[in-house]
Amino acid sequence: MVKNIIKKKRLLFIPVIITLLFLIVSCNDEPTIMGSSLLLDTIAIKSISTDSTTLIVDSKSFIHRLEIFNSGAMFIGKSNDVIAVSLIRFTDIPNSLGDKTEADIDSVTLTLPLLKYAYGNSSNPTALSFKVYKIVKYWTNQSNWDSLFQSGSQSDYFDYTKVLGTFNATIEQKDTMSPITIQLDKQIIAEWFKDASDTLTAGTIWGIALVPDDNSTVIRSLSSLTLTDKRVHPYIRVTYNRTLDTLDTLIMPSAIDASVTNSNPPDEKSLTIQGIISGRFKLSFDVSSIPDEAAIHIAQLDLYLDTLASNHGNDTLDATLAARLYTNSTYSSYFGEYTGGNDTLNPELYRFPNITSAVQYWVSHGKKGELVFLPEGLNNEYREFDKLVFRGINEPDTSKRPALRIIYSTRPKTRCKP
């Protein structure tokens, strides 16, 4: 019985095989001999590159403002055309000291923990110079340079009429940095004590701003709050008279902090990225020469660094960068992210070995698109000012222009419609 069933199944399977063979022969351009002609006819591997055709059609550098908020590092100072300002709001301000006046306060010390990283003239121990001002308007985690400095070089958020403290002391560069300490004006603490004791004004204590002056030629990084790292962060130490003959000490740690930065905009036709600023550039692509519905197997992009135009802080230059395929013009969401790295044998070459999915996306979405290039990773984008300038699409040395190479295959050529 079992043998008969197996025999019937075999008999039914034979017509299926014959039918498939008939379809294969009839749908190909020519009969096959041992499958060799079929292979050549249905698999067409081709390559295309910027050496033979135009695939990269335009470029543009631009500034994309970041919110540097509770990111683990703050920045203060000036270096060339780059300026960094920091804002700090404090907590643990008691509401029971509203009767204390400036005369009751013995000392006020602001402590700012320094990190090792610096951008600019870090070899000069007196290169950092800044002032402390009271913040007089509400600011948030969405604050950036454009929102705080709408009227120009000065901000409506800061009270420039009174300097609360200054720093222009010596900083010794070492592996473990010593903190900065600044004596602050006692009046600001007396004001905060009074405001904290009144429910109507308790919410108006908006903190202090660290603003560099023209004597600064370096930007220093300060350890600050972060949602992930356990870092030492800024605090204010207040010594005051609890009674006529008793001193007490109060520590007010930072509650939130932010940095805002600015620089001259890059040449739009340059290919410039810079951390913290955040400078970015985009390349526009046209892959119309690739057939519809082609399968992209490999797509590789090379960029060549302009070493003379690039610079970095007191750490090594970034060895990686990122490229994103965004799905909207506001750069709020992206389809894919790709990492490019420095070639160990050629320090000028940064290669993206696999942007295959981006090219495949363009082929199926109108044959045109763009990639936005930016610093790679949290540390490079939010904690360092490294500036990488790459040679553009009109570079006189054609061998140093951005180069795209694509390997793809076309669909089988058949007489039968799919």
Would you kindly provide a written description of the structure presented here, covering whatever features stand out?
There is one protein chain. The chain is an alpha+beta fold and 418 residues long. The chain is 15% helix and 41% strand. The chain is built from six helices and 24 strands. Strands 3, 4, 5, 6, 7, 8, 9, 10, 11, 12, 13, 14 and 15 form a 13-stranded antiparallel β-sheet that branches. It is elongated. The two termini are 42 Å apart.
List the helices and strands and how they pair.
Elements: H1 2-27, H2 36-42, E1 44-49, E2 56-63, E3 68-69, E4 71-79, E5 82-90, E6 105-112, E7 114-120, E8 130-135, H3 145-148, E9 158-159, E10 165-167, E11 180-183, H4 186-196, E12 208-212, E13 218-226, E14 235-243, E15 246-262, E16 271-274, E17 279-286, E18 295-304, E19 320-326, E20 334-343, E21 346-352, H5 356-364, E22 368-375, H6 377-382, E23 387-390, E24 403-410
Antiparallel strand pairs: 1-24, 2-17, 3-15, 4-5, 4-13, 5-12, 5-15, 6-11, 6-14, 7-13, 8-9, 8-10, 8-12, 14-15, 16-23, 17-22, 18-21, 18-24, 19-20, 19-22, 20-21
